[in-house]
Structure formats: C-alpha cells, structure tokens
Amino acid sequence: MPTNAVTATRTGPGFDERPVTPSRRRRPGDGLAGYLFLSPWIVGMLLLTIGPMAASLYLSFTDYNLFTTPEWIGIDNYRRLFDDSRWLRSVQVTGMYVLLAVPVKLAAALAVAMLLNSQRRGQGIYRAAFYGPSLIGASVSVAIVWKALFSDDAAVDRLLSMVGIRTGGWVGNPDFSLLMLVLLAAWQFGAPMVIFLAGLKQVPRELYEAAEVDGAGRWRRFWSVTVPMISPVIFFNLLLETINSFQIFTSAYVIGGRNGSPAGSTLFYTVYLYDRGFTDFRMGYASAMAWMLLLGVGLVTAMLFRTARGWVHYSGDNR
Amino acid sequence: MKRFRTVLATSAALALIATGAAACGNDSESGPVTLRYSWWGNADRADLMQQAIDLFEDRNPDITVTPSFQEYEAYWQKLTTETAGGNMPDVIQMDFSYLREYADRGVLYDLDDQTGDALVLDDLLAGFDGVGEVDDARYAVPIGGNTWSMFYNPALFTQADVPAPQVGWTWADYHAAMAAIKSTTGVYGGGNYTGVIYNLEAQLRQEGGALFTEDGQLGFDQERLARFWQQGQDLIAQDVVLPVETAVQIKPASLWVDDLAASDLGWDNFLVRYAGETDTEIRLGPLPSDDPERLGQYLKPAMLLSASARTEHPEAAAKLISFMINDPEVGRIFGGNRGLPATNAQREAAELDGPLADVAAYEETIADQLTQAPPAPPRGAGGVEAAFIRISEELHYGRISVQQAVDQFFTEAEDILQS
Amino acid sequence: MSSSGQGATNPAGIGAGRRRAGRRRRWGSIGWHLAALALLAVILYPVAWVVSASFTPSASIIGDLELLPRDPTTDNYRRAAEGMAGISVWRFFWNSTVLAVLAVVGTVASSALAGYAFARLRFRGRSTMFVLMISTLLLPFHVLIVPQYAVFQNLGLVDTYAPLLLGKFLAAEAFFVFLMVQFMRNIPNELDESARIDGAGQWGTFWHIILPLSRPAMITTAIFTFIWTWNDFLGPLIYLSTPDKYPLPLALQLYIDQTTLSDYGALMAMSMLALLPVIGFFLFFQRFLVEGVSTSGLKG
Prior knowledge:
A: two-stranded antiparallel ribbon; 14 helices; B: alpha+beta; 3-stranded antiparallel β-sheet; 11 strands
C-alpha cells in the first residue's frame, strides 16, 4: 500500500446489495463456509429471537393484558399512539436526549482514548480509572450518587455558584433533569472509549511513520491517518450509541421512576413503554410502541449506513 | 391482510402458547408435595420467612416449600412475567391494589373451596370481614393491616402553640396549624397532601362517598377534584407546605429525614421506617375531618396471600396460607414485619416494641372509628393512582392549571377504567 | 520509555536537537500526567462519594451532600458480608462469577465466528441476515420478555442458568457480532490472500490470520461481556427463582425495598465489594489491548 494512498479518502461500500469484497469473485466454498461459521447465530436466531419478535409484532395488533388471550384489533393501537399526549411527550424527550447525549458522550470517549493511546507509565491504572464510572453500571447506588451531586447546595450547585450561576439544584428542576441524565451518560463513556482504543491499536504504526516522513503535523496526522483508519470503529460507536440512547431505560428509571419525574421531564420512550406494559397491563399497546420505535430507529440506522459509505473506510475492502 | 394475520398468529403462537395441562386439584393429596412461595420484601423479611417456612415444614413433613423473594417493584415485574408465561408460583404475596388485576383475569384460585378445612379464617380481626373477596369468591386472605393516618412532630406543634391532632379536628384546623407552624418555627407545616390519592379518598369517605363506585368507575366528579386540588394550590401560595422541588429531590427519603416538615399523611405502619430514618420523635394521630362522626379511616390489608389458579396442590397451598396467618409462633417470629397481624392470635403473640407498639396503641384509640374497608379497588386502580401522582406533580410545579389537571386526570382515568 | 510515533498524542517533535527534544519530552510527559489527573479528579469524584458512603452510617446516606463521612464505620461491610436468608455472600459472588465467565466464553467464541462470516465471506442471503441481525438491536427488550419467557418455560429451562447463557453461545448479542464485523472488515485483504496462496482453507485463514489480528476486538468483547453480565439484573430476575441461584445484583436489590426498611449502607458496601472482581478483570485484560497489531504483511 503506497503511503500517499493514506491521505486519499476511499469509500468502502456499505452493507447493501454490493459485495463487501468487490476485488474478489466469490470463491467456491465461501457459501458453505459462510453458513457453517454462521450456524450458531442462525440457530440462536431461529430458537431465541425470531419467535419472540414475531410474537411482539402480532401482539401489537391485539388487545393483550398479559393474562388472557390476545384479541385482534388491527391497527387500533397504532392509531391511538398519535392521540396519546404522553406518547408524544416521550418521543420529544427521547429525541432531545439522543441529540444531546450521543455527541457529548462520543466526543468525551474519543478524546480520552486519544489521550490514553500512548506509552506512558501506569497506563493500565489510568485506563481502569477512566473506565471506573462505567463499571458501576446504571444501578440504584448510581442514582443515589447522582442525586446527591446535583441536589440543592451540593457539589455541582456550589461549583456553579462560584461562577455566579444559581440553579437551586437540578434534581427537582424539570428544566435541568434531562441534562442531568445527559451528563450521566457522558460520565459513563467507558464502553466507546475502550472500543476507540482497540481501534487505535489496529492502526499500523508504519502509516504514522510514513506520514511523519512526509512532514505531516499532528493535526494532519489525526485527520489523514487516524480518522480514516478508525472510521469503522467511529461508525460502530456512533450507530450503537444512537440506538442505545433511543432505548435509554435503567438510568432514567432509577432516577425519574415510572412517571418520568419531575413533571414528566424524564419520561423516556422505554420508560413509558414499560409503564404501559407492566403496570397498566397493556402489552398490546406497549408492543405497538416498540414497533414504532423500531421503525423510527430503523430509519435513522439506515440513514447512517447510507452516509457511512462516504466516510467509513475498510482496509479489507480493496477496490 | 388475512394471510399476514395467519402467518403472524402462527409464529406468535409458537412462542406464546404456554403449554402445561390445567391443574386438576384432587381433594386428597398424598405423597410429597413441593410448593413455590413468592413474596416481596427486604433481606430481613427473608430471614424471618425462612424461620416460618422451617416451622411449617416441621409440622407438615410431606410438604416442601421453595421460597423466592424480590424487592417490591422487581417482584411485580417477575410475577407478571411468570403469570403471563403460565408459571405462577403456588402461593404468592398479594397487594390490595393489584388484587382485581389478577382476580378478574382468572389467574387466582378461589380459596372458598378450602375454607373451613385446610384454611381457617375464623380468627380474622373484625375489620377484615370479607376482605379479599371479589365478586363473591375469595381470592386472597389478609396477612396484616394498616390505616391511613396523620404523622406529626409534637415538638413543633408545641412550639407553635397548636393543639396536637385529635378526633374532631377539621381540615381547616389542619391548614391553620400548618400556617402557624411555618410562621413561628420556619419549618414547613406539612407535606402537600393533595399529591396523594388516599387523601382524596379520606375526604370522600368522610362525606359518605368513596373513591370508586360499586361498578368500578370514579366515585367523584370534576368539580370535587378541582376543589381538592385547589386546597393544595392555596397551601403552595401561602408557602406553608413542602415545595414540590424539595419533595422530588429528597426521594427516596421521606420529609422526616432532615425535619423538613412538621406533619405528613401516610400509612401508619410506615412509622417503623421513619423511626429508622430519623431520631426526631414522630407521633400518630387521627385524620382531620369536617364530620367528627366520620374519620373515613379503615383497616386496609397491607398485604394478602393468594394461590395460583393453576396450582396442582390447592390443599397444601391453603394449609400454608392458613399457617402463615393463624399460627401464633409465626406471629411471634414476624412481630410487625408484615404490618400489624390480621388475626387475633397473631396480634397477641407478636411481641411489639418500639414504634410498632406505638402503632398498635394508636390503632386501639381509633378502633371504633375504623369502618369497613371498601371493596378491592377495580382493575386499573393502580394506573389511576399513578396518573393522579403524575398530574398533581405537574400541577404543583405550576406547569398546568387546576382545570387542565382535572381535565387531564378524567380523560386518563376514564380511559384506564373503561377497558 | 519511548514515545516514538504513537499517533496524534505524541508530544515529541521529530528532527530537533536531541537534548532539546529530551527536555521537551519530559515536560510533555509531566503535562500529560497533569492533564490526565485533573480530568480524573472530576470523573472520579462521584466514585469517591460512593466509597465514602459505604463507610457512612446507613441512616445518614440519603440526603448527605458531603464527600467525607462524618463518623466513619465499617458496619455496612459487616452487614453486607453476613449474607441473607441463610445464604452466604460468597455464594452470590460465586454465582455471578460462573455466569460471567461462561458468558465471556460463549460470547467471544460465537461473535468471532459470526463476525468472520459477515465480514469476510460472501454467500447468498448474507445482506438479509445482516439486516436481521441489526434489527434485533432496535426492539426494546421489555416487549420481548414475556414471549421469550414462554419459550424457555416450554423448554423447561426456567430457574436454570440456561436462559441467561444460551443466547451468549448462539451469538444473540448483535452488539458484539457487529463489533467483530467492524474490526474484521478493517484487516487488509492482502493477508488472507497470501494465506490462500499458501494453501490455507477457510478455517485456517480464520484461525491463523484473522483471529490474531482481531485480538483487540475480542478483548473488548470479553471485558464488556464480563461487566455487563456481572451487572445484569433483569435477566436473572425473570429467570431465576431459587435464592441460592441468585447472582449479586439480585442480592443487592434486597437491601432496598420501598415497603419496608432500606439499608442503604449495606447496599453501598455490597456495591463496592461487587466492583472489586470487575476492576480486577478489567485490569488484567486491558493489558492485551496495549499490544498494538503490527501488520508487517503490508507491502506498498
């Protein structure tokens, strides 16, 4: 691979009808090997995944209270969604959250991964320390800590008071509670950070050396070597964080409860779905909500895959 | 469309239909039997429960009990899933507000078939007659009871020179007391009681009404609810009740933790919890009522026991239930852990001390006022209560007006109750 | 300690005088540590709060806004170590360990296999299956709980570890399959082309070329699977009934019950104890992330 090719951006095809490896004709034996390698996944799909997914799709067209036989009601559940003010509210809250949390979390994860991607003393300890918050997961203890930090006259409030901002605590303030959860997500940036790190490890050192010989500065190296080389990982993190942010549940539930307290400001989509399905016993309606989410997030996912062709580059897909 | 339906239904049926022959309870059970028994509660309760189960197994060598326990919210999620999957435990702890959700859908066993033989109900307290019955069938038996009451901090009442709560005081007296406490001591007079549906229920019962009608509809009109919520808005305007921002922020702790307010309304057995959270002395008193003859208070089953409709051993299940509510030794083991016991034998056997003794003594003082409990709340009562909490919170935040709140509540509640 | 060409964060200049470069490097290094530590101070403050809360008397944890406990106590740890309902606390640790280790083995193996097929092989229906796999990520799990429970109930596997582990061995975790795909697609083609020329079959290529080069992805998968399984609450809650099969998260939730007394002190202490194995696992395995993959097979 000539070194100057590094700076040229090349486009790899996305996952579509075009083959991954256009340079090669399908070799004999690939087909059978493909199914063999995939066999655990195929069994898992048939045994564990397809059935429940089909069941939930079926249930979304029924009135199902969990204990008695589902009753077919056609698209009623879907029709009622649009007259449901809480549903509309949950869509709004979730959309806002995704727009804020995803970029903040990914930026933090990439910045720290770059910082840690060097040969320093105590690197392992540093990594573990930065990963620390994510180890705790979204548990009750985290909810308690987070509330303690953002209460009136607690750490965050005092810091802000120093620069002359008086918020009176974020926990009980509906205008700030969403932001509190965005910060919680950003604080637990460990997973994308580790994935970025693993991606950075995959970049062949020769490329940097070659770029240095060509006289590229640090920024130049970042944009022309690092970013294209880790673009599959950037894409993975972007896609998965987006999908997961749409489905934020545990951290929201332990902090805001089933009603999305305070004043519905943390009524996320899945929190509302859970409330409908498991406390109102309306699993049919909840299933319709789930499939609407699948449609919405599916559209976003498809769009991301489509744009990915322009900037995600795979070394394994040579033209 | 039709074909699509068939395809879907077939694939769904594969995943959904929980097989397993329906239970056919034969009357004479013999041979070793295993019962699954689930309850909610903390680690302490699990320890006590294990003692009680050991005792039961000693007396009934042919019955083995497999326990399972979770914390309250997790318990209901698990139980709902198990029930939907056709795998409900044989004996379950039941909550009064969920009773109809389960009973109306035919997943609970009618214990009348076992009453008198395996299940003894003669010793239940007077207030518990008929509790657990739904449409003339008995789907649950109460374990313990509590009653909606006034908690107050006597020191602050004295400091503000306000008489302590006693039978005969009115809602206006209560409002005045809160205002006096706030102005003299600087401490909020109370929590905002209009955020809790049980306070509305208390006022309705004092007026001779009820929260729900016999046929499971709302027992009050929009105007009555508007009046109730307006009380709260007036108290907020006067700044005598705990602001909603603070109430949200301190959760899951109560307002007693930092002596944030001088009074609050709640279930009387919560005194145990509050006593564990704070060193401040808290006392129990009767509800305010505009009709001194009617406090509106009743003995509510704090928790009940039910059996699964699909249990293969109804007689053994009934034996276990009977043992858990009647046996004096079990009463002694639990004390007040399951609320104040529902049978006379267990109440006598339970050595109550500390806050629980206070609760028992308090219930004695208003014993003649404790009226018959209302029938089990209709299906959807839980959802109605949640809507009430949610909407009143928005109201307290000033995001909606009283009229908007009332409209929203009636829209949601009627939607929940009509299904 | 060399700081040669390690990408954008390398503060060392190239081609300057050696002494000047050495000094700059030292200052750069000190600056790096200072920056990292300052950032850590902010990030770890809440963690420090939890540690401190675990030494605070239970009753004063909620609503406590200070970092340092006023009258520190080790009571919480004593209570946490007692276990509950006659089950020792080590039992919960053991259960969690069994679940997490088996989950790691299953997930790493099955995701690597599936990832290889999706990333580097061509066969009929591949795109459709890939779309299907991604779509399993899009459905909120709460609507799948009941149907999935019914499946395992009919298989007679409820109250065993099978429902919690079967999916891991059958690559049902699309997150990790997709992660493998992204890494494996990024391995240059020349490598397996040359392996083919040397006569390696599909399995040989996978085993000798692709797997070693995918090590960062496998380590990442192992770390995440361990942590996520260790912290998983919902799965065990739904499928396990017998208390002596409970993993740690199920034991943890018994300290907080809204209808009875909550023991926040023991909760915090137990959370801390539960973190130790996870931190150990992370520290041990992250070392394998360090070794960069050298692709000497790249020819210009």
